[in-house]
Amino acid sequence: MKKSLLSLAMIVIFSVVGIQLFIIPLFESHIRHPTEKWALEFLTSGFTNILAQQLQPLPKQERALYLQTIQANFGVELSLQEFKKNDFSIEQQQWLEQDKVLGDPLTDLVYRKIDSEQMLVVINPNTVPKYLINDAQRWSMGSFYLIHKRLAGQPEKNWPSLMGSISDNFEHPVSLQTMSELNYSKAQMSDLNEGRIIAISTADSDFIGYPADIVIQRIANSDKVIVLGPFSPELKSKVQYMLSIFYLIFSLSLLVPIVVWLIPAWRSMLSLDKVAILLGQGKFDTRAKLIRFSHLNHLSKTFNHMAEKIQRLISSHKNLINAVSHELRTPIARIEFNLELLRNSTKNDYQLKQLDRIEFSLNELNSLVSEMLAHARFDREMPVLTFESVELKHWLKQELITWQEANPNMTIILLEKGNCNAMIDRYYMSRAICNLIRNAIAYGQNQIQISYQKSRVGWMLFIEDDGTGIPLASRDKVFEPFYREDESRNLQKGGTGLGLAIVKQILNWHGGTASVSTSALGGARFVLDWPEKTS
User: Fold this and answer.
1) Cβ(208)–Cβ(239) under 8 Å?
2) By the number of CB atoms within 10 A of the CB, which of 9, 91, 197, 319 ranks highest?
3) 211 Rama sector, left if φ>0, alpha if ψ -120 to 50, beta otherwise
4) What angle do CA 190, 162, 230 make, to 5 degrees?
5) Within a 10 A sphere around the Cβ of 43, how many other Cβ atoms?
6) What crossing angle do the helices spanning 297-345 and 349-380 adopt, rounded to 10°?
7) Which of helix, strand or coil describes residue 308?
8) Phi first, then psi: what are they for 171, rounded to 5°?
9) pLDDT by residue (tens digit) across 1-38?
């Protein structure tokens, strides 16, 4: 167990190290950086596109001066740079040639081509001016400035159409609303009236790590406001995708080595489960396989050792029974022969009586040997059963005739319940019935009652007597070989202690069970229950 835990700990450690060295760098380059690049372009595209359009008609020497003039209205730094294709990859060059905003999350720079010689560069200073509250206001203040400038001097009735053309430059929604449409706190409405930028956060913006979902500013002294956002619908889907990929890669990188480590153990468990089932079916020569690299091989070895000991024990037990049973037949035969010689050579009544007692005991011993051989044979291998449809009432009547004639002092009653066809092996089921009737005759007083019925899944047969019954504590034990209650060990009752064990075996072959309970007659009530069989 210590070795298994140590190997598992080593696998986890190597997996974590592998994730740090290989998986996370791949994730950063293929998932996180592209996502951050898209987010950077998403947030800056609007004012960057408008600025680039404003700079295009200006002479080159005036562009830098213009940027210096408007710089104070932006929360980012604006600069100009020569457009050198060699500074960018082929993919980036193609992107810039399409007049698209190019973001670089590693340097926090945003590029937008102005013309073939010059480009606009937006630098994120990663600081928030003191007069602003958060990054959302810093990123948006330049957009508000440019939109205000575009709307300034235009009649208010033209603002909606102008906003339509302005919004084409933005990746996120840009809209025009009236103050009466807004429903915010008094402090926020007061800030709007004073011309400040307000940022509205939501649960989605908290999830994506952006300080606001909507940013709003009032247009001069009008009742109109400019609304930027919501940003979260687009950003959230990207963040969710990035996190999902990250957790999936992380989980697989950690889980796959553990699963590989567990597969041999899982195969060992399957092997042990299969062997346990086969052992339960009496196939004691079955052994568990030793799986390569499995940390449960020690358990399989212990299990195999146990199975081997059980097999040897059962084998020696069966061999002992077979040997004893066969070896007893020869002296029994000699005793029987000598007994007949003695009986023919004596006329003494006392001696004849003793010879009768010897003959009775000899018959009991002969019966025990026969039962031991039968039980050993049944326990060793299951015979080939021949199932056939038998009408229970007619079959039981024939079985009981012989018993009634041999025991005239015992009343044997068959409770007839109409015709009932059951699937049984006639020979072995007859043997089971005979053992139970013999048991009822031995322990009953005057009456034996036999009945049958069709159950929900098969058939049930009942043999009851009016004897003393079987104590509750002994009802499971009576079906064990050689088990008998103390009061039964006398010459009057006799018995081998194997009859009920054979009954249980026969019912097992039929897929059923044998049990005992209390009879209404006062004695024992044996129940045979077996399911339907197809012919």
Assistant:
1) yes
2) 197
3) alpha
4) 50
5) 26
6) 160
7) helix
8) -85, -25
9) 566 677 767 777 777 777 777 777 877 888 888 888 88
Residue 167 neighbours by CB distance under 10 Å: 17
Strand partners, 453: 460
Report the length, in residues, of the chain: 535
The C-alpha torsion from 179 through 182 and 183 to 187, rounded to 10°, is -50
d(CA 70, CA 85): 28
Give alpha helix (H) positions in 73-185: 90-97, 135-151, 159-167
Distance CA 293, CA 278 (A): 25
Could you give the CA distance from residue 180 to residue 191 in angstroms, rounded to a whole number? 15
* pLDDT tens column, 44-75: 999 999 999 999 999 998 999 999 999 999 98
Contacts of residue 135, Cβ cutoff 8 Å, sequence gap at least 6 = 128, 210, 211
Mean pLDDT of 200-226: 85
Phi, psi of 391 (to 5 degrees): -80, 115
Would you say residue 407 has pLDDT above 90? no
Cα(512)–Cα(424) distance, rounded to whole angstroms? 11
Q: Whose CA is closest to 498, among 508, 513, 518, 483?
A: 483
Q: How far apart are CA 423 and CA 532, in angstroms?
A: 6
What does the pLDDT look like over 440-487, one tens digit per residue?
Answer: 998 888 899 999 998 888 899 999 999 888 888 888 888 887 776 644
In angstroms, rounded to a whole number, what is the distance separating the alpha carbons of residues 431 and 145?
105
CB 88 within 8 A of CB 97: no
- Global pTM reads 0.52
Name residue 287's amino acid: R
Give the residue carrying structure tokens 């009544």.
Answer: 349
- Please give the backbone phi and psi of residue 222, each rounded to the nearest 5 degrees, phi first: -85, 175
Looking at the predicted structure, is the pLDDT value of residue 359 above 90?
A: no
CA–CA gap between residue 535 and residue 530 (Å, rounded):
15
Instruction: List 449's β-bridge partners, or say none.
Output: 413, 464
- Local structure of 291: helix, strand or coil: coil
How far apart (Å, rounded) are the C-alpha atoms in residues 434 and 415?
Answer: 17
Peptide bond preceding 230 in cis form (omega within 30 of 0): yes
The predicted-structure confidence for 265-324, as pLDDT tens digits, reads as follows: 888 888 888 888 888 777 778 888 888 878 788 888 888 888 888 888 877 767 766 666
Q: Which of 8, 30, 26, 7 shows the shortest CA–CA distance to 18?
A: 26
Measuring CA to CA, which residue among 410, 433, 390, 393 is closest to residue 532? Answer: 390
239, two tokens: 């963040």
385, two tokens: 């059963």
Cβ-proximal residues to 23 (8 Å cutoff; 6+ apart), any chain: 249, 250, 253
